[in-house]
Amino acid sequence: MRVLLVSHLALPHHRAGVETYTHQLARALAAAGAEVRVASTRKVISLASGTIRPTEYDGIGGFEVIQNLDGDGYDSTWRDLRMESAFARILADFRPDVVHFQHLMYWSVGLPRLAREAGARRLMTLHDFHLMCARMGQRIDPGGEGCDGPSEAACAPCMAATPWGQSPAARAWIRRLTTVRSLTGVALDGPMRRLERVRRRLAGRNTEGPAPTAIADSTLPEWRNRFHQRTAAQLDLLDDVELFVTPSEALRQRFVTWGLPPARIRRVPQGLDPTPFATVRHRPAEDGRLRLGFLGTIAPHKGVADLVAAVRRLPGDRVRLTVHGPGDQFPDYLADCRSAAGGVEHIAILGPLTRAEVPRAYDDLDVLCVPSRWDECCPLTIQEAFLAGTPCVVSGRGGMAELVDDGVDGLHARSGDVDDWERVLRRLLDEPALLPRLRAGIRPVRTADQHVQDLLALYRDLPESAPDASDLAR
């Protein structure tokens, strides 16, 4: 069986949850005997968008399609004919039996149709709200607050205030760099990125991408129409995706409410390879302090600043917080977190860990904290913590609340509420028997092998697809 996994981004260049899950799934499928490739996108501004490059990482081959977000504004964020053309070439090259979509961001809404026309069976995992939320799929507004959408009233102003793609000046530079590389073979991506960082620093601005745009009331009717156009196009995926799956029942219910038929979306629990965590040995803290940790992307929707603010209020001689994760995507937010932790000895904000380093981090960690401000679907960090025998304190919403049983193998706190996070974390200091009880309450984590067998059964149950004559004639 040939299986093509399609993700927005991929390891080793991006290390968030979907990318990590996709790679682990690819390895498990290969171990089960499938021939697997991963198709993903990457920004390389000296190459034209739509360029395909072969990739290989950790024994898994794939296809990398350049996507510089230099399309024609908002509409190109969900329908990009350059990306569809590249994907059609990948399908013709690999000829998959099954295409398992993990994420369509940076790709195009037309990919499932192309897979259907190529005769492949089609499955899509819903990891977040991308189909219903145009702004990164997290239902977070430009101010960083949670959103009750999707709805015309909520989404149109948000979409109007969000910058889409590259600025005209940036697109012009991309064209110049692409021309230089095509004529000389010289890639100037690195020098240009360094110059841009210097320019931003001198200008006193440390953010990526264009600044948020002002909202003109006269533009709102146009954005209302665009909201409905995108929503209709995403719901049209029902014509081309045979089955949707998600590891989160909360996410499943949200999508059913949005418009996906209940029979077409199924909850499939994820699984992880327990091997890397089998050797974790919790070492007692030499200074006796409670060791809290955060492992993940340092970004506004992850709520790291809320966690830092709460831990600042706790006695430094009894607790320590270590934050590990990349912050290059949101440098202003990283700077704010560092500033909030500045001068506080018991809070350390460090860089990201490699995959090999993650299990070792749990040797010196008592509790994992997941303070996300959005309804995360199924954070791998929580499952990894449980494999390591480490309880979790999480925002009590979405898939986090499903994975962590409050008072049994972890604790819930209200997302975005620093006072409540302080209260919950202080319980771990004031109730000596609580942490051992939470450790003892951790349940076995489903394995990657079990998860792959579930998916293989779904792949086989999907009907064999064949291109319609009308499709072949296009």
What does this structure look like?
- The protein is an alpha/beta fold and 474 residues long.
- It has 3 domains: 2-163 and 217-271 and 450-472, 3-Layer(aba) Sandwich (Rossmann fold), CATH 3.40.50.2000; 168-202, no CATH class; 275-445, 3-Layer(aba) Sandwich (Rossmann fold).
- 38% of the residues lie in helices and 15% in strands.
- The chain is built from 17 helices and 14 strands.
- The chain has helices at residues 17-31, 81-94, 111-117, 152-161, 168-184, 189-202, 220-235, 249-258, 304-312, 331-341, 358-361, 380-387, 398-403, 418-430, 434-440, 448-461, 469-472, and strands at residues 2-6, 35-42, 52-57, 60-66, 98-101, 121-125, 243-246, 265-267, 290-295, 319-324, 347-349, 367-370, 392-395, 410-413.
- Residues 198-211 and 466-474 have low confidence and may be disordered.
Q: What would the CATH topology of the largest domain be?
A: Rossmann fold
List the uncertain runs: 198-211, 466-474
Total count of domains: 3
| Sheet with the most strands, sense and barrel status | 8 strands, mixed
Q: What is the mean predicted local confidence, pLDDT?
A: 89
Helix/strand/pairing category: alpha/beta
Strand neighbour order, sheet with most strands: 3-4-2-1-5-6-7-8
Integer-rounded radius of gyration: 23 Å
How many separate helices?
Answer: 17
CATH superfamily of the largest domain: Glycogen Phosphorylase B
Based on the coordinates given, report the CATH architecture of the largest domain. Answer: 3-Layer(aba) Sandwich
Terminus-to-terminus distance: 28 Å
- Classified by CATH, the class of the largest domain is Alpha Beta
Task: Estimate the global geometry from the Cα principal axes.
Answer: globular
Strand tally: 14
Approximate strand percentage: 5-15%
Oligomer: single chain
